[in-house]
Amino acid sequence: MLCGIEHIDIERKSRLGLLGELLAEEWLPAAGFKDVENLNRKVRNCPFGDILATRNGTRFFIGVKSRNEFQANGRINPTYNAVLIRADKKAQLEGAGKTEAQITEILWREVQALAERWQALPAWTAVAMRPLRGTFCAYFGLATALGNRRSIPMKIADRRRYEVLAEHRSDHRITPDLLNRTLSPSLSLG
Fold first, then answer.
1. Most exposed residue of 13, 38, 160, 184, measured as fewest CB within 10 angstroms of its CB?
2. Where are the beta strands (DSSP E) in 143-189?
C-alpha cells in the first residue's frame, strides 16, 4: 500500500504527463502537424506513443515526455526518459547476457515495430514545465536522432538541436502543485 506522500507524487506525475500530452496536442498543429490524434483516448496506455500526427505527408508516432524543467535540487533536469523497461524484463535480458547497449537497441526496435503498426515514424515531444512561473517549453524530434540512448538530452545546449514547438509559453493549467515535492528553498521565487 502506498503512503500518502507516494500517492500524491504519483498523482502529480500523472497530472504532469496528462498536461504534457494536452499541450503537445494543442501545439503540434501550430508547427504544421495535421490530423493530431491522442492515442490514449483510443488505446489504454499505448506503449511509447501518445499521439499520431501527420506533417508533409509523413505520419508520426509521438511519445510525449513531460517533466519539471528543474530537479528538486535546483539543477536543470538533464534528460527525459524516452523508453523505459520494467526491472524484471531488464534483469531477464541481463541474465541472458545482454549489455545495456543491446537492451537499448531492443527497446528501440520494439518502438519501431509499434510505429510501423500505425504506419508512422517514431518521434518524441518533450515538454519542460516551470510550475512556479506557469510556463512551459515544448520540443519535437525523431527517435532516430537520439541514437542508441534511452533518454532525450534536455540541457539548454541540447535543446538548440530540436524543433521548438513552444518556448516560455504561459498556461493557466501549469500550477505550483506540479512542482517536485522537495524543492530547494532557493527556487521558491520561481
1. 160
2. 151-153, 163-170
Determine contact, residues 82/126, Cβ cutoff 8 Å: no
Could you tell me the pTM of the whole model? Answer: 0.88
Condensed to tens digits (0 to 9), the pLDDT of residues 113-147 reads 999 999 999 999 999 999 999 999 999 999 999 99
Judge residue 40's burial from the number of C-beta atoms within 10 Å of its C-beta, 0-12 exposed, 13-18 middle, 19 or more buried: middle
**Residue closest to 165 by CA, chosen among 127, 135, 129:** 127
- Residue pair 128/67 in contact (Cβ under 8 Å)? The answer is yes
Q: Residue 160 — φ and ψ, nearest 5°? A: -65, -20
Rounded Cα distance between 2 and 10, Å, is: 10
